[in-house]
Structure to design on (339 residues):
């Protein structure tokens, strides 16, 4: 244990010490080497400090984490990048012999061009950084990414987050997509959560009896918690059925599907034993008898008008000496025949 810790900090301390010693004894060393070593000493010092700081931060994260919810590797990588970026920035400013403002002005154009070229990668990376800082989930949590995936978080990277679903399917999601969606964490702040199933029963069964039967079904379930106790709430009163929400508490998301299956199986068993009638739907034709009679009267009137019109045409043709033509096909009514 002690040897692994010492080996972890040996190289950073060695590089940092070398840089400090070169800076202290540069006047004695430069005559023998024939060139200035101040810049090299500053570079080694900056890199050593950055490396040592990142190792200290990683050590603190590893020993301060919880076994159930460890901190993602993204935290350590992010801090290491920040330390080394600061070291390189300070080294560049020292080598170019310019201050902070000049170094920023010289690098702004390059950063702008690179940012536009890799904007999608930058979006995923920045989203990963935001998710890592806010911490909506950690490794080992069971989460539901709205309209994307549901599973256990196994890795949080710079650009992607990897999930393992209940079907043992490996899902890789870009962090930028996750950041724009609703996230439901079933493991935080506690792994205990409440689930429910909807049951529709006939209105013939009273609410009091229905609640008693549904609670009786949960008494035999083994995968749900007995405390807090399950309960039943009325969700909707319809014309034919009443919808109930049977609510119960679970301790592990892995058992969600099995718990629902167990509860619904016992509900079916209890309802069959109690001979509860299944909901039935009555279909009624829209309209009253008066509307039907008025429709029949209208049809009869239209038939009379058609016959009168045909008679008038026949008399008109006879008066002009034309022989009336026999209709060999079914007559069709035109809109102008009723004018």
């Amino acid at each position: 244990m002690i040897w692994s810790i010492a080996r972890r900090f040996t190289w950073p301390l060695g590089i940092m010490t070398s840089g400090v010693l070169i800076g202290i004894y540069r006047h004695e060393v430069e005559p023998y080497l024939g060139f200035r070593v101040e810049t090299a000493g500053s570079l080694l010092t900056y890199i050593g400090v950055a490396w040592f700081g990142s190792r200290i931060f990683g050590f603190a994260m590893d020993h301060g984490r919880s076994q159930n919810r460890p901190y993602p590797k993204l935290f350590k990588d992010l801090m290491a990048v920040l330390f080394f970026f600061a070291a390189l920035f300070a080294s560049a400013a020292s080598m170019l012999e310019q201050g902070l403002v000049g170094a920023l002005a010289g690098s702004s154009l390059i950063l702008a061009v690179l940012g536009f070229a890799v904007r999608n990668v930058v979006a995923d990376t920045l989203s990963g950084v935001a998710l890592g800082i806010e911490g909506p989930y950690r490794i080992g949590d069971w989460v539901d990414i709205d309209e994307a995936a549901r599973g256990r978080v196994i890795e949080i990277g710079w650009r992607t987050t990897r999930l393992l679903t209940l079907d043992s399917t490996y899902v890789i999601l870009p962090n930028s997509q996750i950041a724009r969606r609703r996230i439901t964490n079933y493991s935080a702040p506690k792994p205990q959560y409440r689930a429910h199933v909807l049951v529709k029963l006939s209105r013939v069964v009273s609410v009091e009896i229905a609640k008693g039967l549904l609670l009786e079904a949960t008494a035999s379930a083994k995968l749900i918690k007995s405390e807090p106790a399950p309960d039943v709430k009325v969700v909707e009163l319809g014309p034919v059925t009443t919808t109930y929400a049977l609510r119960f508490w679970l301790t592990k998301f892995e058992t969600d599907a099995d718990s629902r299956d167990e509860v619904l199986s016992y509900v079916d068993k209890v309802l069959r034993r109690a001979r509860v009638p299944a909901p039935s739907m009555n279909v009624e034709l829209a309209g009253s008898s008066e509307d039907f009679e008025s429709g029949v009267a209208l049809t009869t009137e239209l038939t009379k008008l058609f016959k009168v019109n045909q008679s008038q045409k026949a008399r008109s043709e006879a008066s002009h000496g034309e022989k009336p033509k026999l209709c060999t096909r079914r007559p069709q009514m035109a809109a102008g025949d009723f004018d």
